[in-house]
Task: structure prediction
Amino acid sequence: MDYHATTPVDPAVLEAMLPYFNGKFGNAASIDHFFGNEAQRAVEESRETIARLIGADDSQEVIFTSGATESDNIALVGITEAYSHKGNHIISSATEHKAVLDTLDYLTTRGFKSTILPVDKVGMINPDDVESAITDQTILISIMMANNEIGTIQPVREIGQVARDHEIFFHTDAAQAVGHIPVDVNSSNIDLMSFTAHKLYGPKGIGALFARRKRPRVKPAPVIHGGGHERGIRSGTLNVPAIVGFAKAMEIAAENMDREEVTLRQWTEYMFSEFQQHIRGVERNGHPLNRLAHNLNVYLPGVESKSLMMELATQVAFSSGSACTSAKIEPSHVIQALGMHADRAHSSVRFGLGRFTTLSEVNVATDRVIQTVSRLKNIFV
Result:
């Protein structure tokens, strides 16, 4: 029940990857011999597949990275370094992933300024607020596509149009969106997009940054130097097996997206209705409709989320927020950004269902949570 943190590798993805660990082990940059050429062909075919599935016009707009966090860093740091002569202002939102928010904090130490926009009570950004925040120094707008904690899907097409109208680059962190909802970088006016394989049944340690080459041309400064790989934006020996697995995972996700959307939305709605029936005062966090189908984030009044998780640690895997911030003992910044009190953030939990979740598991998890919440409330009354 924690598929937002990561997903298992699909067996078909693993099968596609295996030959490139041994028999086809060449370095994709060593193109003077057969082994290198074989690896390079696999990389470029994978790049073309991924580009096609996100609606990119040119496969070279897909830059391979180690994951969405690195992609976010390249997008923000790379753009500010490359285009600082045009301005020093970035617009983002209060519910962004820490890979964006912490990078913005870093950039403020280097003289850049940021405007962090508020969200409404269900986590939505108003495109008019984005436009109102623009100054003559704004060079980048970074708004995530789908939230990793509450699942709210932002109006990225409208925000992208605002950016396009003002000739400002638009970046979106789409780590939770790609492979789960339709994504088209052109129709959504996206100039830079971060995404990763391990959120869509691919391997960990491989991600990508979409960086537009035309209308407008976007060229972030490199964050990692050496060798000039990936259009000079991200140097380093390419992880060929993972790249092949990334592309295969994207293909499988595209084939199964509609079916999974229907099933997982039914199951998360079922869980929420059961919680409403058996737990007094339970409420959903995030948008009731414009959300990821496999996401359910709920407020369980009177129960500390960490206590609930500890009680069920050997039975049900779920979380109280982002996996990337779970080491910090602090309430979710996302829940607090909804205008909620800290107690609500401390009493909210996230369930993330996935391709290999079964209805039996949904039923067991739902029952165990209801029973444990009831017992904990009786203990602390």
